[in-house]
Structures are given as structure tokens and as C-alpha cells.
Amino acid sequence: MSEGCMTLIPYDKREGIPLNVAAERAGKSPGTVRNWCIEHGIGRRVGGGQWIVSKVALAMFLDGDYEALRRYKSGDRSSDCVVAYFKREGLERK
User: Fold this and answer.
1) pLDDT surpassing 90 at residue 2
2) Helices (H), 1-94
3) Which of 8, 32, 56, 61 lies deepest, with the highest CB count within 10 Å?
4) How many CB atoms lie within 10 A of CB 36?
5) When comparing pLDDT for 94 and 11, which is higher?
């Protein structure tokens, strides 16, 4: 994952899903999704090294919305294109 990537920061456990759940959503193997976490910054390791995938970042990645994903990973949580994904996942920011 790239330096300065803000995936799941700040951490909200409602946003994160385990690797196997993300793999089911994507229709891919857990290994593929883990590689996406590393290569595209859609998840990160938390406590004990378990991979947690951002529902928001996964949706952006699967939609091919790389501009929203770039903004999200840079820490932007207020642009309309990013907020739309939080809303879609039922994670409206307060």
C-alpha cells in the first residue's frame, strides 16, 4: 500500500469487512482481494495482522471510480463523489 494512504483512517468498524466477505462481494478469491489491498490500497491490516477491507473503497474499485478512490485514499471524506459511496454503504458521516 502506498505511503500516506488513508484507507480506514479514521477507523470505523462499520466501514470495514473481513477479507472473505469482501471476496464474496467481489466474486473473487480472498487472495485476489488481498492483492488488491496491497496494490490498490482498498484495505489494511488491523490488530494481529488481519486484513480488513473498506466497503467504501471496494465499491469504488469495483465500479472503476478511480478518481473517487484516489480522493478517499488521500483522506478526502467530503467530496460529493466520496460522500456518495459512504451513503450507498449506509455510512453517512456525522
Assistant:
1) no
2) 19-26, 30-40, 55-63, 66-73, 80-88
3) 56
4) 21
5) 11
Which contiguous run of DSSP H or E holds residue 32? Answer: helix 30-40
Q: What is the C-alpha to C-alpha distance for residues 23 and 48, in angstroms, rounded to an integer?
A: 20
Q: Would you give the distance in Å from CA 54 to the centre of its chain?
A: 3
Q: What is the mean pLDDT of the chain?
A: 93
Q: Shortest CA distance to 86 belongs to which of 2, 4, 3, 10? A: 10
Return the pLDDT at 47.
81
Q: Could you tell me the pLDDT band of residue 3, with boundaries at 50, 70 and 90?
A: low
**Are the C-beta atoms of residues 88 and 63 closer than 8 Å to each other?**
no
Question: Could you say which DSSP state residue 73 is in?
Answer: H
| Residues composing the chain | 94
Instruction: Name the CATH topology of 16-88.
Output: Multidrug-efflux Transporter Regulator; Chain: A; Domain 2 (1.10.1660)
Distance CA 45, CA 8 (A): 10
Are the beta carbons of 78 and 87 closer than 8 angstroms? no
